[in-house]
Amino acid sequence: MAVVAVLPGDVKRLDMGNTLLRFNNDNWQQLASQCITDIDVLCNELQLDAKDIRALCEPNAFALKVPLPFVSRIQKGDATDPLLLQILPLKQEKLETVGFVADPLGETSFNPTPGLIHKYAGRVLLTMASSCPVNCRYCFRRHFPYADNRLTPATWQPALDYIEADASISEIILSGGEPLLLNDRMIDKLLHSLEKIEHVKLLRIHSRMPIVIPQRLTKALCDRLSSSRLRTTLVLHCNHPNEIDSTVSEALAALVASPVTLLNQSVLLKNINDTSAVLKKLSYTLFDVGVLPYYLHATDPVQGTAHFFVDDTRAKALSKQLINSLPGYLVPTLVREISGESAKTRLGI
Prior knowledge:
alpha/beta; disordered N terminus; 11 helices; 12 strands; TIM Barrel; 2 domains; globular
């Protein structure tokens, strides 16, 4: 199998054995279905020595998976590229580290009905998809039991009944997995159902899709989010300024001009974005495309992710440097999510 990535707007050609596929780069569903899942293919595309990269990697149940638009932003020939390090299944993932567990946030304890997580007052999270178009190696839900929690039109009624029965719930958060893997028709159907519940006022969508496959922001989706009676916020997930290119900025433009609020949350990751220079550039780059920094998450102690961990002393020092060098509205709040707490914990400086 060989995959050849080209510039946005071109036609891509995928050679899979004897099968040749041609598709337009603007078709987000095809882009999501044709992710690179083989290290040799990835190395060929990025002009890396496959033997050297394989020596660093060890495939596991959380497989390599990355879409072509994101691959196109990885620096060719650089095995230390910060985008590449976010998606490579390195051998360190197999190491057992004290304190790193499968469910550090205790989400399975706040799962009253399939597909719904209710941890915080006034809001619930719906897991709308069981997968993502990219497997981020630091993912805090990499061990989450999605098979028991994926919501579909055929299974989401109990979750809707739970929301309707609790008048204290004013905000719905769509997450996953990747909620924007749902097609426009399914999103429209879900929004219609939520809009009928009078006490629901706010909609929040947590998504990496506008970053890894910006083509997902179709006109139909943008129009639907913009016209909802629910006050809508799209929270992107971008960790490094190199993740943002012209395809991302162009895709976001329609939402920037709409009532939808655009925020970003990042994860602080060792050897990827753990310098004040990178984090400062990320804030300015986000603002340039109409997105405000929201959270900078201290790394969660998820089993298999210890090599990304940045200790709290360093995290706080970086946050202080950002406070001292950026306008306040561009400083993301440094937080850690702690199981059992009533809200995210802000890390003091």
